[in-house]
Amino acid sequence: MGQRVFEYAVVRIVPRVEREEFINAAVILFSPQQAFLGLELRFDEARLRALAPELDDPTVSTLRRHLESLRAIAAGDPAGGPNAGLSQRERFHFLVAPRSTMIQLSPVHSGLCDDAATALQRLADSLL
Fold first, then answer.
1. pLDDT value, residue 1
2. Which of 30, 41, 56, 87 is the most exposed place for a label (fewest CB within 10 A)?
């Protein structure tokens, strides 16, 4: 198949925006030529609590639910709501749209790969 273009972004948890501190929680990767959209979620609750010990259990649970909904949207799973029914390209653009909440996205980056699923795992291993 050869090298194909992909785009990716990192999902970040930013407990206090004014401190500009965050932990990486997931990677979203999209390769239209490989018809691939995936989200690898590795939410490390212990790291989050070390960064922001003031967060209560309901807030952490809510963050986890929101991250799970992003994974469902990426997968096209109806549990992700109406956005899960969009095309892969539309879902990717929805997922990487800027947010002003505790869940934020890095800029979108691009690369080349032979296999998008392998590239997603490689990025997750190095960034999460």
1. 60
2. 56
